[in-house]
Each structure stands twice: as C-alpha cells, then as structure tokens.
Amino acid sequence: MTKGVRGDNAVLLRRLYTSLYRIRRVEEEIVRIYPTDKIKSPSHMSLGQESVSVGVCEALRKTDIVFATYRSHAAYLAKGGDLKRMTAELYGKADGAARGKAGSMHLIDMSTGMMGTSAIVGTSLPLAVGYALAERMRGKDTVVVVFFGDGAQEEGVFHESMNFAALKKLPVLFVLENNTYAIHTPLGARVPAANFRERAATYKMPTQLIEDGDTLALLEATEAAAARMRAGGGPEFFEVMTMRWLEHVGPGDDLHLNYRTKAELDAWKAKDQVKLIGAMLDDAARGQIQREVEEEVQAALAFAEASPYPADHELYEHVYHD
Predict the structure, then answer these.
(1) Domain 10-307: assigned CATH number
(2) By percentage, how much of the chain surpasses pLDDT 90?
(3) What is the mean pLDDT of residues 266-285?
C-alpha cells in the first residue's frame, strides 16, 4: 500500500478510517436487520468495496459532484450524505433522503453533491457528462465523478459518454469499480479481453489502474487528477480492482452458487482496507473512532424506527418537479 500524498498525516488517517468504518458498520447492521422486513428496499451491499468511494471522495470538495450506481451506500456516505436520512430511506420512512420513495438504489443528498443514484446499469454515465458540461458553461471548476461497475462498460452509453467528455474536455473522472463479476457472470464469459483502460485511452484520456482498492493510492491519484481537470485537462479514467463480499443483492453469502471460489473471496478479505487503514492508527484512536461510529449508527437506526411512514397523499406528490 502506498503512503499516499499525506499518508503519514494522523488527522487524515483518522478521517479515512472513520469513513471506512462507518460504511462497514452501517452495512453490517443492514445485513442484520434485512431479514426482518423492516428494510423495505432491495439493498446492494458495498461490503468489501468501501475503499473505492472513500479514497476518491476524500479528495473532492463539497461542491464537487458524484454520480453512482445502485450499490450506493458507500458513495453516499463517503461524499457526506446524511446517515439518518439514508437509514430512514431504506425503511421507506417519510424522513428518508427521498421521503421513503426511492430506497437504497436511488439515494440522494444534493447538499453534499451526491446526486441520485440509478438502478439501471450505465445510466449515470451520461448524466455525469451532462452535469460537467453544464458546470463548464457556468464557468465553474467543479469536478464530476461517476462510479460504475465492470458490467457498465458493455453498454453503448459507456463509449458515447467517454467520447463526448473527451471531445469537450469535460472535468469528469470515470471510476470503474472492477469487481470482475456482472451479477454472477465473470469477465471472461462477457468480453474477449478486460482491456478497459485501453478502451478509455482510445478517447485520448489519461488512465490509471489502482490495485487492491488501495485507499491511499486512490486518494493520491484523485487529488492529482482533480487538479488537472480543474485546470482544463479534460476527463480521466480509473480502473479500481475490488471485490464485493456478499451476494449481488441482499445480505447473504453466495458461495453456494459456485460462480466464484472461497479462496478468491478470502484473498480479497485478507486485503481488507478497513482493517489495513485502521492498523495505521494506535489502539486509543481506533477505539475512539469505533465507539463514536457505533453511537452514530445506533442513533441512525433509532431515527429510522421512529420516523413515520409517508402519508397516503404523498403518492401523488413529487411526481413532477415543482
């Protein structure tokens, strides 16, 4: 693991570990609660992939914009999304991020630059490009990040979006979260070669490979890329190797489906970024963070439990933008 631009900074490490551990603990609680049917929304867990969002979002300004996929909890929280409103949204409650109407796959917190996530593969790509174009026309130096999975690069809009972003030199950071599976189908059964960076390079944009979901390497790379984009350097492309620990959607283990092996999963768990970053802190600092996060997570769950369900009339509200 690289030390990163500021890897020896204790304050930075505390911030990174807080974000990583916060995502990990709230998702562990979601996994625990999911079978009770209190959570009304299908949920795609980010367990194992937390570092991708944390490493990138730590390098961003609050005014920068993030678009993400249906596996949205990590990006939402890493960008500063409200945890209480997120949990209430999963419960389908009126105090949720979208008043209980959107669920896990459509989280949004525009106050932090977290745009609504999408359940349709690849659809966030052109939205991110369009937002970047609008910000450039407004004369702003906003950086727009779009997270997407390896399955999205098989969609035509992947190429259309990269082509347009490159043509207009838009400040879009394309972040491919490559967990090597589209639901249950491995890369080798879908594409003749996993040459994603080569494809991006054909649009004349810089590309980088980040191995092992390395949080500090991602932070360092994103800081440098964001500075180049703010200076007019145009879009860039990251391929980040990672692995989800649980099934495609839901709280369960999927090894019984035999599309991946226990050895493969165990190898990734041995590189768990939550533990690796936590080990860079002393016991006292790590323990304090864990206690504070636990209090926050339990308060968020209590908030969701206490929140009312939306009134019947809300079914007809917010259908169109007012």
Answers:
(1) 3.40.50.970
(2) 83
(3) 96
